[in-house]
Predict the 3D structure of the following.
Amino acid sequence: MLRSNRFVLTLFVIFLLTFGAFYLHITNGSFDMSVWDVIKTLLRIDPNPKHDLVIFDFRLPRIVIAMLIGIGLGIAGTVMQGVTRNGLADPGILGINAGAGASIVLFLLLFQMKAKHITDGSWTSTMMMPIFGFVGGALAAALILIFSRKNGRMDMQRLILTGISINSGFGALSMYISLKMNPQDFEMAAVWMVGSIYNANWVFVLSMLPWIVILSVIIYRKAHLLDYFQLEEGTVTSLGISVEKEKIILILCSVGLISACVSVSGSIGFIGLMAPHIARSLVGLRHRLIMPVSAGVGMFLLIISDYISKTVFEPSELPVGIVVSIIGIPYFLYLLVKSKA
Amino acid sequence: MSTKKTNWIPITMLVISPFFILLAIVISVLYGTKDISALTAWQAITEFDPNNVDHNIIAGSRIPRVVAALLVGAFLAVAGAIMQGITRNYLASPSIMGVNDGSAFVITLAIVFFPGLSNYQMIILSMVGSALGAGLVFGFGSVIRNGLSPVRLAIIGTVIGTFLSSIASAIALFNQVSQTVSIWYNAKLHAVDVDMLRVAIPFGIIGLLLALFTSKSVTVASLGEDIAIGLGQRTKWVKALSILAVVFLTGTSVALVGKIAFVGLVIPHIVRFIVGVDYRYIIPCSAVVGSIFLAFCDIISRFINYPFETPIGIVTAVIGVPFFLYLIRTKGGEKSA
């Protein structure tokens, strides 16, 4: 009873914070707007084409994408940490981002799609991007599974180490592929690989929305399994759960989430690491509760980071991935200092 | 472990290495985007004609390039060997421990805030950066429980490296010097600066000499702190001197060609596998093997995407990553963590 009250309260606070971030993001920028302007534009009262352009073509898609990516990374991070039973696991550190990124860069090269004018490119190719990303991400996940197993169990140390090497391997691959692009696309690819969402538009939103919605629901329905995985392996099997199968389903679902995110924004690390930790310290150990909170925290963090990335260095933009790692790494080090073992 | 018996192996390596180094030099000088005949190349050295394009290519680009590759290969491999010996950590290497990133970080600051520094100053700043990166990583490593174990140190190194390079790219983007900075960041061996090379050589040589000087103590240190103290070694001095050597070697390397990953990790392992555990052999052998490895990687990098150059970092990663995975598979796991 007490716990569920706390859960509701936490979600409410996160909602308020996200709303605050949303407010900051939509009213501020190189073109400041009053709240009243924003409301009028959204509710179509006395529309002003200039305001329409800023809100509907620039700020709103960007915020929506930041929200979706935050949710995706928050959930994917929770799954990775739950499945590996390792609080340091993160899609970025494990190299899944890099794997998805490399195959998306390959996709961009093969289809000669101008990353800059993605709206001019065909819709189908934008929709295909997450699928391509999924192949690369799944490949990275498979490599991790193969190399981190020891006597049939996943070994924590190997997991992290494999991640580090997969990261640099796929990073080199992306760099090699991107060098084959023409200079203009290369520059875009470089910014995109650091993690950036400033070229957001509604086509991207559409391309990632189904992935986020469907996979989040599937994962949430399986969230209670993550609680069991924290127990000893033998105990779980005796409960009649086919551990390996469920783990692989969960991992593949989160690779799908990550790929959808990476296909739009490039590699954004550390959200998947931080959000679950914050969520766990807020609502305890049950994954049914952790997961929505982690999604909410991810959402808030990404909107606020994106806000920082667009305003701090105005008029130039900082890729949001850089903001996230400048915020996230001190927190990560704090976790390491605090952790026992 | 009978090192006496196997003395001939490292000595053979050192004796035959000049042949491979020569081979690398010859291939490197003669082949590239423009094929140049051996005779022309020889004339470029003996009777240089400033109006001859081929001569200029040889003297101004190909020779400095192969010299830089040989030197940087040796520097990074030796730095890696020392770090692995001192920390007793099989993952220690300049790229993983944030040393490269520290160097690149300080160089970014220098490019932004003090443009137009001389090559001397750049190299010294690069060394300051190496020291900063190493200091941060080791500092955190010693604060955190088990922080100096291979895995934790690798994580800390990667994370601090990412942090430093994130801040550096933020500063660079803000000041709109990203392109200038990326010349330092991304290993561009083919664009090596001849003046910088001239300035860098003495610093690197000092580093190598320091490394050779401490090699015996590194062997003792690699047996473990307790044994080293038991054998009467002044461990603090050994650590300080060898870290100084690492700072000289990696600082010079980054100033010359940027961040090159994996050489410092992979080469010492291969060498240790062949010559055993005595650092008096490991360090010189790492130097020659590293030279030859990087020079050949450089040659490969010219032909992967012919006629365009491929950054050498890609070639070393392609060779280094599978090896790293192999190390994890055979050596990784709880025991060494």
